[in-house]
Design brief:
rod-shaped, 8-stranded antiparallel beta barrel, 2 helices, about 375 residues, Immunoglobulin-like, mainly beta, 3 domains
Length: about 375
């Protein structure tokens, strides 16, 4: 690594000046009229990067800086100067006055150049809450796009997330989460991917998720945005036919469940496709499929979001042939399986297979999302 000499301290003001100038969002132009042997106005405060433009109305005059750093020349108007450094600029008309005279009694003027003001404009470009149905008290994933429209860095500010029953998000709605942003660089964008929590006291219904910036900026109109698509909040999940699908645990891909819900019968059935607890010997063969492949079925009464089901093993059958099938006897003696749905997207299965002394829990999710919309729609219709 190369060694670099430290900056000369006399260079620091120049660096600061460049920084301030770069952050000046829009330079302004100030007009001074020359008439009746006076400058109007003759005392201005401008910012670094601003321009002063002198125009002549009558008479013969000049605009001459006290130290001769600029001079319009005789009646050479309009005449403009842009000021790029913090300073007090004194000027006069060389025809009617001289340097250093009182601006209140002579044809002299003053321009006070101050640091450029920094304006901040951060916008909420987009809010996208993950579609679906959620139980009150559950987390919702929200992806938010922010943009810094300023020429300077944003600094620290908060993004507050709200849930609302209508399409207008305000600070009077229910606050469900806050994310602190340390900084967004000038003209840069930032994506927030956050989980926010729905209050447990939310009543069932459709809700909008929105975000509001807690920041003092020049354009508050773009500090608020919301997801135009509602989420549905329920207080108790109730099984419906929209759950009829293939479900699995991704970490045991190749195994899974076919689940069928019969709401009118208040009954649910399940077919579990899995494997034996140990691999079969290498020389084991089967006429069809894997010799270690196993399947079982279960059925039970629906109790809102769950069902306790008796497991049933069947054996003795022959492929595509009428045969005498042996079933678990008595029913349930092989064990039980409890299925519980969190929402239309996920659930879990707790199994207790007494015949092999095995217990466990399997988180499940859909293999495909085709029936999610149906499940959500039926959930809204549930009592």
């Amino acid at each position: 690594m190369k060694n670099h000499k430290p900056l000369n301290p006399s260079f620091y003001p120049f660096v600061i000046l460049l920084f301030l100038t770069a952050m000046h969002v829009q330079a302004a132009t100030f007009e001074v009229v020359i008439s009746n042997n006076e400058f109007t106005p003759n005392d201005l405060t401008v910012e670094v990067g601003d321009t002063v433009n002198w125009t002549l109305q009558n008479g013969t005059h000049t605009v001459t800086e006290d130290n001769d750093s600029f001079d319009s020349g005789l009646n050479n108007f309009p005449f403009s100067q842009t000021f790029q450094s913090i300073a007090e600029i004194l000027y006069y008309c060389s025809v009617h006055s001289s340097p250093g005279q009182d601006i209140n009694t002579n044809m002299n003027g003053r321009i006070n150049v101050i640091a450029a003001s920094v304006t901040t404009d951060i916008s909420v470009e987009d809010v996208d809450a993950e579609d679906g149905s959620y139980e009150s008290g559950e987390d919702v994933r929200v992806v938010t796009q922010l943009k810094n429209n300023s020429t300077g860095d944003s600094g620290v500010f908060d993004v507050n997330f709200y849930v609302s029953g209508d399409e207008v998000i305000t600070t009077s709605d229910t606050l469900i989460g806050t994310k602190q942003v340390s900084n967004i660089n000038a003209q840069a964008s930032l994506t927030l991917d956050e989980n926010v929590n729905l209050p447990e006291d939310l009543t069932k219904g459709d809700y909008y998720i929105g975000a509001i910036l807690d920041i003092d900026d020049t354009n508050p109109a773009n500090d608020t945005n919301l997801d135009q698509t509602t989420i549905y909040v329920f207080t108790q999940f109730i099984m419906n036919a929209g759950l009829n699908d293939a479900w699995f645990n991704p970490i045991t891909d190749g195994q899974g469940f076919f689940i069928t819900v019969f709401p009118d019968l208040n009954f649910i059935t399940l077919a579990w496709f899995t494997y034996d607890t140990e691999l079969p010997p290498l020389d084991a063969t089967a006429n069809l499929g894997d010799p270690g492949h196993r399947w079982m079925t279960a059925g039970g009464v629906i109790d809102m979001d769950k069902s306790v089901m008796n497991i049933e093993f069947t054996s003795g059958g022959i492929f595509d042939a009428a045969s005498i099938i042996e079933r678990t006897n008595p029913a349930g003696s092989d064990g039980t399986l409890t299925i519980n749905f969190d929402n239309c997207l996920s659930g879990k299965i707790d199994y207790d297979i007494t015949s092999i002394d095995s217990k466990g829990t399997i988180p499940i999710q859909r293999v495909a999302g085709d029936n999610i919309a149906l499940c959500n729609a039926l959930l809204k219709e549930s009592p």
